[in-house]
Amino acid sequence: MTPPHRSLDTLDRLRSATDRNLVRLVTLEPGTHAHAALRNEIVEDNLNLVTRACHRYTQRVDLREDLRQVAAIGLIKAVDGYRPGHGAGFLAYAIPTISGELKRYFRDHTWAVHARRGEQELYLRLVRTRDDVSTRLGREPTVAELATELGEDEDRVRVGLELGTALRTDSLDAPTGTDGGDSGTGHDRRGAPDPALELVVNREALRPLIAALGERDRRILKLRFWDDLTQAEIGQHLGLSQMHVSRLLTHAFTTLREGMLVTT
């Protein structure tokens, strides 16, 4: 898309000037003032290529300035690497060079969770295709439409779209409430540590100690702590007095406590 402040005639003149300047640039000694000045002039005359390359990423407001700087680096590399008379001209060389610089930036710097290079490239292809198809259809394309456009199967397209969740992560300190909704941060929505986890070690240590008790003691412990019976109810169940059940429980507790002290 042509920037509104530059007419097509102006762009044609700039391109012609760029072609002449590129031919002249190779005759100058790198590092000299004349070479640096002409190089800067060529870059400034072609900053519209930077704008064009960044246009497809306008939704990434958070990266707007970073992407422009990365694209400008790509333009500088194109100026330095182009050789007049080779290939299909400077534009044909500069545009993929700038695009490649942006792709590398997305691949290496913007993924909060690691994804393989092939997966990253698939996601970027999907984003570009989705934007193009959305513009053409006037709506969000379906997975099937994206698969047809890209020549990929639908499962691979779904995987590629899901990779977008690895691109960015939300801060736990970010507010999660909406107008009329609950306020708070991501921390508030996360569960607290389970207190029962602290009992795991003790339970595992007690398991063999309980198994070593006599059958009656094990049965009394089960009735007390698994079936939640009172000492009197246990006594009625086993034909014992409540006082006798109390002494048996105390003896079992002492045995288990001493065994725990030994294991720790």
Provide an overview of this structure.
The protein is mainly α and 264 residues long. It has three domains: 110 residues, RNA polymerase sigma factor, region 2, helix turn helix motif (Rna Polymerase Sigma Factor, Chain: A), CATH 1.10.1740.10; 58 residues, Winged helix-like DNA-binding domain superfamily/Winged helix DNA-binding domain (Arc Repressor Mutant, subunit A); 65 residues, Arc Repressor Mutant, subunit A, CATH 1.10.10. The chain contains 13 helices and no strands. Helix 1 packs antiparallel against helix 2, helix 3 crosses helix 4 and helix 7 crosses helix 8. The N terminus is likely disordered.
Strand-helix topology:
Blueprint: H1 8-25, H2 33-45, H3 47-55, H4 64-81, H5 90-109, H6 117-137, H7 143-150, H8 154-162, H9 186-189, H10 200-211, H11 215-226, H12 231-238, H13 242-263
Give the termini distance in whole angstroms: 74 Å
The SSE string, one letter per element, is HHHHHHHHHHHHH
Q: How many beta-strand runs?
A: 0
Q: Extract low-pLDDT stretches.
A: 1-5
Largest sheet: none
Shape: elongated
The number of helices is 13
Output the radius of gyration: 36 Å
CATH architecture of the largest domain: Orthogonal Bundle
Number of domains: 3
The third-level CATH topology of the largest domain is Rna Polymerase Sigma Factor, Chain: A
State the CATH superfamily name of the largest domain: RNA polymerase sigma factor, region 2, helix turn helix motif
- As a percent range, the share of strand residues is under 5%
Mean pLDDT: 78
Helical content class: 55-70%
- Structural class, by secondary structure, is mainly alpha
CATH class of the largest domain: Mainly Alpha
